[in-house]
Amino acid sequence: MSKHLIIKDLDYLQEIGASSPVTGGNVHVSTGTTVNSGYAGAFAVALAEGEHTFTDTQTLARVILSGNFSMSLARARAIAFASTGNRIYQSVSNQTTMSFHFFNSTSF
User: Fold this and answer.
1) 32: Cβ–Cβ under 8 A, 6 or more apart, which residues?
2) Is the per-residue pLDDT at 108 higher than 60?
3) Whole-angstrom Cα distance, residue 100 to residue 98?
4) How distant is the alpha carbon of residue 47 from its chain centre?
């Protein structure tokens, strides 16, 4: 199944021809992970506002199914950095969740 995002009716938006420098700074990061038998999910968000900014996000979601064993792993990492003048703002978030499941598969 294919899903499409349609963006239209935006003629009310105005183009900005000039901008003023940011006088402050702000950073925000958030991460989340979830795992259970057979699935893993991770998200990472980073926001930085200032004269000089840097953001980085990394996620990993892995599921290994092998016979009577299941391992789910989710990792998320977010970094935000902003500097304005002599002020420096930084925030880091890391999260890791792991799940092991063993199945009893006796057959008669």
Assistant:
1) 42, 43, 76, 95
2) no
3) 7
4) 11
Q: Chain-wide mean pLDDT for the chain?
A: 85
Domain that holds residue 70: 26-102
Domain count, the chain: 1
Most confident option among 4-8, 10-14, 96-100: 96-100
DSSP code per residue over 35-67: EETTEEEEEEEEEEESSEEEEEEEEEEEEEEET
Q: Is the pLDDT of residue 36 over 90?
A: no
**Is the residue at 89 inside a domain?**
yes
Specify the long-range contacts of residues 37-42, CB closer than 8 Å, at least 24 apart: 37/70, 37/72, 37/99, 37/101, 38/63, 38/65, 38/70, 38/72, 39/63, 39/72, 40/72, 40/73, 40/74, 40/97, 40/99, 41/74, 42/74, 42/75, 42/76, 42/95
